[in-house]
Design a protein that fits this description.
Elements (H helix, E strand, L loop, with lengths): L11 H8 L2 H4 L4 H17 L5 H19 L12 H13 L1 H4 L7 H38 L3 E6 L2 E7 H26 L1 E2 L15 H7 L4 E2 L3 H6 L3 H27 L7 E2 L18 H24 L14 H24 L1 E2 L1 H7 L6 H10 L4 H9 L3
Parallel strand pairs: 3-4
Antiparallel strand pairs: 1-2, 5-6
Length: 391
């Protein structure tokens, strides 16, 4: 039975269209909806809606669902639409009338907001850990090869001397900034929307601070309309940071693709990281780097998909918001796997010291020569012209 069903039969074509892929995507949220439901049941007990026995039975049932979901055995049927219905139906089948009480003082609106916030919190923590792993891998790579000099480029032409250390640490520093931004976004997300219902609260004295504490939120999101309006807004901030992370990975991949070409040969991927050609037997293709480069654009598209979906909506819940789940879940998954492959790349990346040394040609030191003359008292412009005439 659908949570909104009132006896009227809905057109099946309309039902299929409105459900979309929600019943599949919500498998990511089952655990979090159950965790939120456990906190909610304890709050209903606190305000004397549920007895101690009721709460214990509901918690046991919800923990069963979490275990089934972890094993891949919990099913959300299309006719159930979403995880909220599937969970309530399971509890009702198991516990009878008690199962129906779990929805007291809630709407699917604040249910999904709460489950998503908990999901984002876990995703954010995992992504921060993966960023740390990547920077550790880059730092270890720099420690081994950082002394190697390589050309620095501007306008894709040789400019001034650089090094593996300077190049690698540029991405370490940038990832640290990305981490700071993600921590800030997670702080904004750290507000409990549970109890705001469909955006206008419930006509019952509930304890929102209690459920916020139970779920590990630092505070309650007080305004119920803002709770609905923040859906998409908060996700947009999260996706923007993921996009920044992927931007750095895109640049790493682009650099490595160029500088691992035989014409440069500064870097070399191990053969187990390369693919071949179906027609050219000599090929060792950097497909992993090309896909890493491309996935930035996929995450970027997810960000703009989300922003476009959420614009031009009046305050309060609108069904358009349902479509916000997919780009966020997708972007989180891509960012996680991209950070993992990025760390693996640096763990196995080889530097060809001979090729790097051969690339350090005389023109790279032109600016140094200018400043050597400046130190002798020659005006910069005269020194510049003097060295330029010899190049």
């Amino acid at each position: 039975m659908k949570l909104w069903e009132k006896g009227q039969k809905i057109n099946e074509q309309v039902f299929d269209f409105t459900v979309g892929d929600d019943f599949i995507l919500d498998l990511h949220l089952v655990k979090y909806d159950c965790i939120a439901s456990i906190a909610h049941a304890r709050m209903l007990n606190k305000i004397n809606i549920l007895t101690n026995e009721d709460v214990n039975k509901l918690i046991d049932g919800l923990n069963e669902i979490i275990e089934l979901n972890e094993k891949g055995s919990f099913e959300i049927k299309k006719e159930q639409e979403d995880c909220h219905t599937a969970i309530e139906n399971y509890l009702t089948d198991k516990l009878g009338e008690l199962g129906k009480k779990i929805h007291t003082a809630r709407s699917r609106n604040d249910q999904v907001l709460t489950a998503l916030r908990l999901f984002y919190r876990d995703q954010g923590k995992e992504i921060i850990s993966l960023m740390d792993n990547l920077t550790d891998s880059i730092s270890a790579f720099v420690k081994k090869t950082g002394d190697v000099k390589i050309p620095g480029y501007t306008h894709m032409q040789k400019a001034m001397p650089s090094s593996i250390k300077l190049w690698g640490n540029a991405f370490v520093d940038s990832m640290e900034d990305n981490k700071s931004l993600l921590v800030a976004v997670l702080d904004i997300l750290d507000q409990s929307p549970l109890g705001t219902a469909a955006g206008y609260g419930v006509p019952l004295e509930i304890d929102r601070e209690f459920t916020a504490r139970e779920l590990g939120f630092s505070r309650v999101q007080e305004n119920p309309i803002y709770a609905q309006n923040s859906r998409g807004k908060f996700e947009s901030s999260l996706l923007h940071i993921l996009n920044q992370i992927m931007f750095d990975l895109n640049k790493i991949a682009t650099d490595l693709i160029l500088f691992s070409m035989p014409e440069f040969g500064f870097f070399q991927l191990p053969v187990e990281f390369c693919t071949g050609s179906s027609i050219m037997p000599q090929k060792k293709n950097p497909d992993v780097l090309e896909l890493l480069r491309a996935k930035y654009h996929v995450v970027s598209a997810c960000e703009f998909q989300l922003k476009n979906l959420m614009s031009n909506l009046i305050s309060g819940y609108n069904r358009d918001m349902q479509l916000s789940k997919e780009p966020v879940i997708k972007a989180c998954a891509i960012t996680r796997e991209s950070l993992e492959i990025g760390a693996a790349l640096f763990d196995h990346l080889f530097v060809n010291r001979e090729k790097c040394e051969a690339a350090m040609t005389e023109e790279l030191y032109a600016t140094e020569k200018v400043y050597a003359l400046v130190k002798q008292g020659i005006p910069f412009r005269d020194a510049y012209q003097q060295i330029a005439s010899k190049m």
